[in-house]
Design a protein that fits this description.
Helix content: 25-40%
Order of helices and strands: EHEHEHEEHEEEEEEEHHEHHHHE
Number of strands: 14
Structural class: alpha/beta
Oligomer: single chain
Length: 342
Amino acid sequence: MKQTSIVILNWNTRQQLATFLPILLKYTDLSINQIVVADNASTDDSVPYVKQHFPEIQIIQLDQNYGFAEGYNRALKEVQSEYYVLLNSDIEVTGNWLPPLINLLEADKSIAACMPKFLSYSNREYFEYAGAAGGYIDYLGYPFCKGRIFDALEKDDNQYNGIYEVFWATGACLVIRSELFHSLQGFDPFFFAHMEEIDLCWRLQNKGHKIYCTTQSTVYHIGGGTLPKGNPRKTYLNFRNNLILLFKNLPQNKRYILYYRYLLNMLSIAKYISARMFQDAWAVFRAYFGFIKYVKAYGRREKIYTYPEVIYPKCVVTDFFLHKKSKFTDLDWKTQPEVKKY
């Protein structure tokens, strides 16, 4: 059994595989690691291409497109290793990208998952949207990153270099202990795509584990591959899944937050309508029907008593839009997450 399995969930990304697999192979030691392409029933020539040009890469073929969440759940049932690296097909890794991530998990058993620094593939001096230098949420459930708040991307001047606790690690390059992934039944398949990694990271923290980022490892990410920005389907999934995320993971005494989010989401609908983005406005409205469907089907499956300390105690929406705080260092943390050295 290999120590680490790097698993790329693929759906019609043959060109990205052709571009980035050679770099991944160059910087990955296959004597202790393996690379797996899990194909979500692609209709392009991804699978025959990988078989022909990269025979050292294992292929798992799924019978239909299960989306990000269930696609990984099904694929990882067939992969045995101590650690999983869930890697997007549109990522360029760099030299020595993997050892700092694995070494971190080896050094501290309380850390369940971690991620590298995310920089933009097209604008390489700037952080990239999907992960930047680690993910957080505010107390209302709005996600943001160290180096990226909403659409404001910071230039990377090494200002966030270090090893520190975060709230969520991006699913675009998520390094996780395989035992813990399976003990929590992996991603919630209802999410399909978007925020399923935040849900998994929150559930890990509810079980007493920690999530980290180490900037000793860097990757470059194209981004926007699953659903592009401005797609009403993306809007629907983001709003629906965010409500489910809060419903599942908030302790009972914090459930009032769902009512606050209802009011803010109604403002979002009004904003979309004023911008004549009617499909997005309808997507937010439909998200509530999807949320109700989830609650009826699954309900609360376990009692939650914890509330992670790395949740930002204020509202990042008002900080960003009203107070013009566009950088992570502008935010008013009572205590910043500690930077550690190993």
